[in-house]
User: Fold this.
Amino acid sequence: MNNKLKFVPVTMENIILATETEMKFWPDSCAFNSYLRAYQKGKPYWLVYDNYKLVGMSGIYDYPELGEPDTAWLGWFGVLEEYRGEGYGKAILLETLNRAKDMGYKILRLYSSKREDLCPNAIPFYTKLSKQFNGFVEDYTLEQPEMQRIVVSFSLDGNPISKWNNRNLFLDEDRKDEDDGYIKYLELKNNLHNDNEVL
Assistant:
């Protein structure tokens, strides 16, 4: 692994690549709308490169409706399977935590799954790293209990933080947004393909 990873913002020029990379991690999900909204609002999602090789992705979003204006959420974070176990996950997450802190957030949270078929090694990875940031891992059972979700919290300023306490994350609404995003992704991809055929 190169000591300096390159975080390339997701823009309209690389949104197809970002969406297709994300769908390698989560084939039943589509982050296109998340990337589009973030780009329109100037909020960051990144493709992460080691030299010229794409190794993973990460992002930060806020969700003021959840009642925590100083909290950032980690979005669409992952390392491509062929590069796992080489330290990229930790390096990408640590850099994302630093960027969230630089943006003025005091807390970073994420949700993931305990299911090994979905997120292998997630629990030990997040548990160990969250403790370094005065944080913790807690079960999330309010929605979609079959997913065996967790919420992981990190303190970005070193101060104690409150638990999430199973508050609603509105995951069903997110699912509808992902389905809509998949349609938009296909439309853009088809339009780009058709434009290339004309040239």
